[in-house]
Every structure is written in C-alpha cells, then in structure tokens.
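Good morning,

Attaching, inline, the backbone tokens for the sequence recovery test we're adding to the shared suite. The designed sequence is right after.
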C-alpha cells in the first residue's frame, strides 16, 4: 500500500515540474526531412536598403505544398538560421523579406514544404547584403535676424527615391528635437518657420524621407538668432514751463532700420498708458487744455518689420505751465468819487492784472466786466453809483497771458444821505 502511494506521489511531482501546476505544454510538431522532395533551386536575389527579393524555379512535384524560408544575420552570435516565413503555395516562385537593417549581411536557405510535417533538404546557403542607407542632405543652412521667423534652405537630394523632408527644431529649454514640418516633393528646398520669439536662439536640421518611409540621418545642425526687438529709448526729458504745452525730447534709437516712435500717455503714473501719437522725430510738443496739466509718458521704438521695443523706463512726468499765484492782501474802499482797490503781487511772473467788476442790479441780475492790462497794484474805478453794490476781484496775468485764480471777491457800496 505504501509503495503505491509513493509511486503516485512521484508521478504527481513529476507532472508539477513540467506543467507549473497547470497544464501540459502543447508538444511541438516534429518536422521530418524527406530527401525525395524537390529542393528549391534559386535563380538569384535582389537587395534594396531594407529588403531583399528572391526568385526560384517552379517546382512541379505535386507532393510539395509550399516553401520554408530560413535566415540568419551577422548580428546573430551563433550564426544559426531560423525559420522566418512559410509560403503556403507550391506555385510561388518569389519571396520578399523586408524590415531588414541597412548595410547588413544576411544568409538564407529555402526548403520545400511537404505533407504531414515533412520538408525537403535545404537549398544551398545564399549570402546577401542590404544596401547602405541613403546619405543625409548634403547642404543645409538657416537665415537668421528675421522678425519672429527663420528661413531654412537645403540642396534638393539627388536620390530619386526621396519623396519629402522632415524639419526638426531643437527646443533649447529641454534640449529635445521636435518635428515641426514635413515638406513634400524632392525638389522643394525651402521652409519658413514662423511665430518665433524675438532675439531667441534656434537650432534646425533636416531629414530626407523615401517613398517607402525610410528616413535618412539628419543633416548638419544650423544655428540662428531671430531679430531682436529695438532697444529701450533712453534719456527722455520733459518740460513744465510752457504755456498749455509739454515738450518731450529723447536720445535717437541706435537701430539702422527705425521706422517710427510711439508715445504712450497717462494722467497718472500707475495708470493705463494709452497710445497717443506716432512720429519720426526725437522731439514732440504735447498741447494741453489746462494750465498746470500733468501727464506721464512712455516712448517706444518701432522698426521697419513692425517690431516694437519695450516701453521706456523710468516713467517721465511733464506738465504745462501752472497758473500764476493769486494776488494777496486785496482791499478796497468806495465813495462818491469812486472805488479804490489795492493788492500785493505774490508772483514775479505777473506782468499785469485784471480787475473783474460785478454790478448787482438786483438779487438775481448781475453784470460783470473785466478791466485788463492794469500795470500797477492799484486801481481806481470812477464809474460807481450810490446805493448800488459792487463786487471786485483781481487776477494776475503773466507774459504768456496765463491768468491766476481770482482773489476772493470784496463787496463795496455807499449810500446817499
């Protein structure tokens, strides 16, 4: 009884070793060499870059149902030929082996396939070599200093198998080549890469592609730099002493292809700078509406390719001439002989004075007149009437006719007895 159990256990262990505790492997078919089967007789071969074609004489033997193809290459260490294909027709006389490595030697044998897992003896071994890969594009160059673009030129490939070209660009940030375009047509030899960054370094190369999608090694790498933006405008000056105007001037841009300057203006230093004017000179007079009006400016240079440089810094402030100061110590008295007004000048810019006289005819009816070009700091008004109220104000006026704010009005009147 114990012997029977040990025997059963041994059988179980043996099965587990071969099955991995699952199922028995499917046994391989055993091929028997039948020396009576016709052996393929090769007529020859024809090689290309990644493929080789073979031709053999037709076989009339009805026992032949097809053919086996064996191959090895120099990359195989044991040089052993492996079956790579089965041809399921005895009427076939051609075979093409593709996806091979360019410029590589291979060995082939053929045998006839018989019925019931038989085959003929192998044919003689034939050694073939694939052709070398097509050479890269021989001439490739790039044209730099273009506005946000790059022009690429190459010599059309002389090999008629070439159908297209792949343009590669190196991403400088991660040092990775990326495909940016495919140009169809062997004779095409130009590509313009657009939407690039200003003043940026780029690297390019080109690869040729055959009709059967074989890709050559890359051409030599070409480096370029796109056109930089015009530099920042320097040495900007502005005025604050012109009547209702601000004069700007700046250092000329050093670029050779300057087209114009743009001036941007804002009413506050940290506000939005809106486009104000385009001009070709290095000076500009900005006319203002008010006295003492303040504006902030930024200026840019624009070249003939419409590339605009950075806005100038620091911010430039300018203003029109402020109003003269208002006279002080304004006083007056009135009597039958008229009104006498006096004041003190508070601004050396004042060259004359204007007196504003307002006659109050009623609570709502008033008439104002101006007496201009008063040279002294006093004024006598003889045109007064008893029992009528008059309001007087005085204004300083400079040589440009800019008027100060008026003094506070004084009220004068006298009554008859």
């Amino acid at each position: 009884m114990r012997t029977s159990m040990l025997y059963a256990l041994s059988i179980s262990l043996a099965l587990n070793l071969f099955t991995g505790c699952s199922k028995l492997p499917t046994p391989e078919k055993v091929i028997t060499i039948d020396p009576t089967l016709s052996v393929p007789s090769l007529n020859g071969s024809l090689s290309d870059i990644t493929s080789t074609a073979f031709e053999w004489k037709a076989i009339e033997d009805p026992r032949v149902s097809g053919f086996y193809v064996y191959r090895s290459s120099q990359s195989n260490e044991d040089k052993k030929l492996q079956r790579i294909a089965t041809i399921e027709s005895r009427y076939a006389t051609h075979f093409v082996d593709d996806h091979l490595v360019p410029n590589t030697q291979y060995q082939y044998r053929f045998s006839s396939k018989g019925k019931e897992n038989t085959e003929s003896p192998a044919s003689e071994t034939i050694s073939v070599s694939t052709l070398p890969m097509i050479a890269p594009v021989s001439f490739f160059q790039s044209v730099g200093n273009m506005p946000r673009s790059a022009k690429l030129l190459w010599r059309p490939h002389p090999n008629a198998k070439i159908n297209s070209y792949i343009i590669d660009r190196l991403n400088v940030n991660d040092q990775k080549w990326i495909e940016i375009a495919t140009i169809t047509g062997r004779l095409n030899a130009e590509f313009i890469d657009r939407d690039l960054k200003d003043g940026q370094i780029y690297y390019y190369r080109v690869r040729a592609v055959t009709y059967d999608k074989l890709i050559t090694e890359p051409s030599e790498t070409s480096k370029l730099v796109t056109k930089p933006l015009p530099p920042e405008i320097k040495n900007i000056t502005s005025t604050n002493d012109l009547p209702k105007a601000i004069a700007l001037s700046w250092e000329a841009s050093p670029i050779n292809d300057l087209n114009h300057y743009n001036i941007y203006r804002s009413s506050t230093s940290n506000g939005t700078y809106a486009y104000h004017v385009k001009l070709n000179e290095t000076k500009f007079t900005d006319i203002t509406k008010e006295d003492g009006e303040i504006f902030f400016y930024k200026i840019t240079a624009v070249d003939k390719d419409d590339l605009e440089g950075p806005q100038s810094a620091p911010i430039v402030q300018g203003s029109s001439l402020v109003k003269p100061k208002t006279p002080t110590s304004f006083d007056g008295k009135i009597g039958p002989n008229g009104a006498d007004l006096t004041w003190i000048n508070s601004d050396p810019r004042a060259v004359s004075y204007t007196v504003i006289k307002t006659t109050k005819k009623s609570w709502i009816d008033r008439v104002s007149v101006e007496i201009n070009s008063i040279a002294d700091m006093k004024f006598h008004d003889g045109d007064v009437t008893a029992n009528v109220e008059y309001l007087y104000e005085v204004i300083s006026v400079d040589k440009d006719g800019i008027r100060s704010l008026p003094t506070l009005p004084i009220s004068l009147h006298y009554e008859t007895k």
